[in-house]
Amino acid sequence: MSSANTVMTDPVQAQLDAYNARDIDAFMRFWAEDCGYYAFPSTLLARGAEEIRARHVERFREPDLHGRLVSRIALGDLVVDHEIVTRNFEEGLGEVEVVAIYEIRDGLIANAWFKMGEKRLEGRAEIVRSGSAPTRRPYIGRRALSVVEASYCPSARGCSVSTMKASRNTSSSNASFSPSMTAMIISATTGSPDCPMTSSRRWSKS
Length: 206
Fold this sequence. Notes:
Layout (H helix, E strand, L loop, with lengths): L2 H19 L2 H5 L2 E9 L3 E5 L1 H11 L6 E10 L2 E12 L2 E14 L2 E9 L3 E2 L3 E2 L18 E5 L11 E5 L5 E2 L2 E2 L5 E6 L8 H4 L7
Parallel strand pairs: 1-6, 8-9
Antiparallel strand pairs: 1-2, 3-4, 4-5, 5-6, 5-7, 9-13, 10-13, 11-12
């Protein structure tokens, strides 16, 4: 990266480091006093350093908060980051993909726009309904679980299994079960290696 691009990316990297350290004072050093903070493309979320500080004081209370940089490009006065951010959502621990666009002026962030992906909650699993073939499409996250119809497991010997009886008013991972459905959640980390449901699984880590 050229020295000119480094001048542009330095404040972006520094504020990301401070974000991950949850250090509000260090974080705010790299934002201009009159900076704009937007949901892409043009929804104003905060105007000025004071509002941005207040927004992040609240965010920094999340114990697992962490932004992982996937890629970065710099062009002129713009820096574009692709990040995966781990958050403590109301629904539980999860992550979200973010594209962040920073406009740099005089070594500070003058404006920033954020395009958010869908939340991915840790532990969210695929639901396989009665009568369908079992699927092995795990939740993509730090730890994946697969949910299968109980009747498809030929042997639970040696497995660590949690059985859920579901009713019409019961939901798991935001998916409602039918009254007759019984599902087994088989953990990839504790399942028996000779279990046909766990041994053939392909897990993704992000």
